[in-house]
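Pilot study result, target chain (267 residues):
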Amino acid sequence: MNATLGFVGAGNFTEALVRGLCMAGVERDRLLVTTRSRLDRLEALQRQWGVVPVRDKTELCRAASILILAMKPQDLHEAMRELAPAVTSRHLLISVLAGVPAATVERYVDGAPVIRAMPNLPMAVRAGATAIACGRHVRDEHRAQARALFDLVGETVEVSEEWMNAVTAVSGSGPAYVYLLIEALIEAAVAVGIPLEPARALALQTVLGAARLVRDTGADPADLRHRVTSPGGTTRAALAVLEARGFKPAVIEAVRRATERARELGA
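Predicted structure:
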């Protein structure tokens, strides 16, 4: 991945991707960032990661071949009003705006390829999960560029765009569900008498190890759960509480609501 990247927006997404790319060895002078109002974030990114701040969007288009749209969805129109006149067919636009279809971005540019992407926060440590969906004008070389970019910071899958709102709910928002579980495990460990630091270490390694076991062995999570659950044992007692409190239905409903919210944002 040897293209120059132009980030439009200096929020959490940009920070996470910049961090992951820097960890992957991408040259800092190929990471250009512009923002309309978050100048404090821009200065912080420059100070910490050595990105190149760009104040003018026309200049950004001139210098970068891949433009990453990372502003808030409601700011898309204003940003594209400034960007669109300088966008040409040599550019690849990658939109990470939740709920916004590729076709919406395509309406602002004249035939430039647009890829809709949904990464997640662990890309900051090169452990991200990114789904991409290609717009009408995307060719194989554009697809390869996008995959090369996100493969540097995790795992990339290509999906039909009709799935992207659900992807947003599952993997885009998904780390927050896991963080909530980790918080609960730590609080529970402290509540039953374990000091905070070992409680934190045990909770983190438990979640990390459980995920790695599924990934590295290819085992079905349900089968692994059954292996851990002895009849009449401690795990069975704990799972009975989670089942009685509706743990799995609550997760399913959370993902369903997040999917609906992604659709609402797109509208």
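One observation from the pilot: The chain has a mean pLDDT of 94. A full batch analysis is planned for the follow-on phase.
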